[in-house]
Design brief:
Order of helices and strands: EEHEHEEHHHHHEEEHEHH
Distance between the termini: 50 Å
Strand content: 5-15%
Radius of gyration: 24 Å
Largest sheet: 4 strands, antiparallel
Structural class: alpha+beta
Helix content: 40-55%
Strand order of the largest sheet: 8-7-6-9
Shape: globular
Amino acid sequence: MYENNQYIPKWDNNFQQYICTDERPSSTFWQQNRCVLEISQEQYEVLLNEIKKEAEKTKNRNPNLQKDDSKMISLEILRKNLYYNSTPIGINGYKIFPHIHNCVTWVIQRLSDIGIEVINTDEWIPDFPILDNLKENLNTIKSLHSIFLKFQNIDDNLQSVKGARAFITWTRSMLDNNYICYVNQENLEKKIQTFCKKNIENQRYYESIKKFYDKASQLKSIYNKLNLCLESITNKFSADIKGDFELIYFDRKDRQIKLLKADNDYEAIAIQDLDLSQKYNNFSVSKFYPFIFIPKDEMISRMLYHKYDYGNISQEYQKDRNEFYFNVLAGEKKR
């Protein structure tokens, strides 16, 4: 973390160069200034491999620099070889450095690729002032990820990159579903107005910021609800439990209910109904949980689902219950 990040680049007008001689204060690297995420072995290996590939591609970005001049980098070389312009841009009274945006965008794209929810990979820092809100958004990512880890620690299949990415597909399918997530728009508006006033000059930035924070707020609501659903299961047992999750969601594009599970390599399966004679299906439909949990331990399964083991169920009852449940997942009917 320290190597290659310890210097503060300062522009020298006389030499028309960045001179990197001063080191950042040690507080820069304190633990509270880091965003640390726990990931699986597979996620780590995929991420590391991608970083190595990109490092190999960019290792000769500055072939004209001499070894002795490694701490003196001209602005022109930065612009030409590092893909970004380091000149600060004045927006809304703040100085925004495009290279900070690009570096963060690169990081979050790599994290998204291995199945970590980063809210938005297209435009991640439309907010002002940049540093305060960067920390806030990193804390949001850590919070969302901590809830995902609870699912991952129960279901080993979610340690795969495919499983982690499927989890994101599933949670994002619940966006804009008022029966699953809720955002107080009045409070959201007040928050946005604190760092970007809505006017003609800032209209584009305002809309971008609002879109970002609305999505972040919805994801918080979705993950908090999923956390409550999961705790209603795990809190019944003193020991850790293991099992498989099957993730159910409404595909708005196809207008179909679909299911993601490890047995099908997390490829979406369109489903017409759930067999409620299966106790774990009956439990999820009765509770309006957007997932099915199948414990590895049969004893835990019996303890958890004994009230929902109805045996034979009439087709008419199954049809009505499935329809009601699927409409809630689609956000089309009140419970």
